[in-house]
Amino acid sequence: MHFKDFSDLSAVGSLQQLAASPCDLTAPGLFSSDRFSRYHLSSCGFDLLYATQRVDDEVLAALQALADEAELVEKFRAMKKGAIMNRIEGFASEERRVLHTACRDIFREQPDNSEAAGQAREQLARLQGFLDDVQAGRIVNHKNESFTTMIQVGIGGSDLGPRALCMALKAWSLPDRATRFIANVDPDDAAAVLAGVDLSRTLVNVVSKSGTTLETLTNEQLVRHAYSEAGLDPARHILAVTGQGSPMDDPGRYLISFYMYDYIGGRYSATSMVGMVTLGFMLGYDRALEVLSGAHAMDLAAEETDIRRNMPLLMALIGIWNHNFLGLPTLAVLPYSQALLRFPAHLQQCDMESNGKSVTRQGRLVRWQTGPVVWGEPGTNGQHAFYQLLHQGTEVVPADFIGFRHPQYEGDLEVKGTTSQQKLVANMLAQSLALALGRNHENPNRYFPGNRPNSILLSDRLTPYAMGALLALYEHRIVFQGFCWNINSFDQEGVQLGKILATRLLEEMTDGGGDRQRLAKDSPERNLLAQASL
Ligand code: G6Q
């Protein structure tokens, strides 16, 4: 497979020229019904309205040429089949396949990668058996009571995606099922969660692919201690999800263990056992499977080569247009759904850990911008907070609005002629237009420049299926961008240095003597510890 440098792609030159005079969203009469219907794409239950992006047919044609020249869809297909995509040529790197799509390629007879899909099926069957046993009262506590809560202990990819999914889908939970999460090594994180649950009716799902993560192992010990203190047997309560052969791959220590595999990156692991165990406990097996079904539908839709019919690819390319050609350094993800409270945080990791890179797949320094800063919060709360900057600040922030036509719960009320959901969606549409159109005013303080690009993603209701599709949509958007920038979106060397330094500091704090080599007297580490009185 041939990866070309982004700056060597001839479509980049055309796009640079087009970027000299991009579509002006404040131009009178621009937003005709024709523009709205022209720049609209439906896929897997979502509508993408992108008339409010600074694109026109010429820009879209050039983005199509970029996608074709960089062979983005071909690379995506190769990834799904099991090509070694996680690598840097000529340098030590992870050298792994990237097969998170296989976790949900369980609905057809001929999956893209039968080995990985087979392993996904095996793990799912094991999960189904476990959930049936919990449901039928075959797995109970020492008093024969059922389990009502599951705490997931994990961090990074073993926390953010699963937590975002559980929060998003709480409305679809089985009765009397709750989920909680402990991630931070801050003891107050665990203490607050443990104080709020009945330990005797709680299962604890310790999730770590490597089985070596300091925060997770520490929190596991803290939880075990809490069980012992309460006179309960941890072995009846604690289960694990880990990589085969990891230090946590020790079935005797756990009520049950599940596997995730080295071909699934942490931040792409929400649809593997990393996310599915806790989600399955909350939703029940069949509903949890609907998440996989939505994700799988998007996996298939992402193979379309026409960018105007491939939502993740189009979003990836519009992102590149905004970032590399219009020079906009960030992306705000703004869900108009309280249930998506933690989804921006998940995307922040998935995007910034994947595409926050400065070397190409050949190990050379890049000469173009790679991943943007990704951030966000649910609206309308954000409107009363940081939207001031979005509308009138000196920084232009492209935005993705995400909304739903109907709420998850029953009981929405009409107040002054409209329901709360209508108010919510109206606010989202209004923000999109306000950013694009701006407003003229003789008072400079009340002037809105407009021309601020954004898209709207709209679906009927935030169901398990829709959540799966939304998750996969963003996963593929990130992957397509990484392919286009010729970077490896699947490793995370950038998080290693801080870990190494933290370990050194901890060693210095705990056993200054020992046989270990002491830090030099005037080293930055020792000077900082002294200054911090630690
Ligand atoms: C994600 C990263 C990272 C990882 C955590 C937890 O892609 O690799 O966020 O998920 O460091 O790792 P473990 O699951 O191995 O504990």
What CATH calls the topology of the largest domain is Rossmann fold
Order of adjacent strands in the largest pleated sheet? 1-2-13-10-8-9
User: How much of the residues is beta strand, in percent?
Assistant: 5-15%
Over the alpha carbons, how many angstroms does the gyration radius reach?
A: 24 Å
Q: Looking at this structure, what is the CATH superfamily of the largest domain? A: Glucose-6-phosphate isomerase like protein, domain 1
Helix segment tally: 17
| CA distance, first residue to last residue | 52 Å
How many beta strands in the DSSP annotation?
13
Shape: globular
Ligands present: glucose-6-phosphate
Point out poorly predicted stretches. Answer: none
Into how many domains do the coordinates divide?
A: 3
How would you describe what is shown here?
With 534 residues, this protein is an alpha/beta fold. 41% of the residues lie in helices and 11% in strands. It folds into three domains: 240 residues, 3-Layer(aba) Sandwich (Rossmann fold), CATH 3.40.50.10490; 193 residues, Rossmann fold (3-Layer(aba) Sandwich); 35 residues, no CATH class. Strands 1-2-13-10-8-9 form a six-stranded mixed β-sheet, with helices on both faces. The protein has a five-stranded parallel β-sheet with strand order 4-3-5-6-7, with helices on both faces. The radius of gyration is 24 Å and the shape is globular. The mean pLDDT is 96. Glucose-6-phosphate (G6Q) binds next to loops.
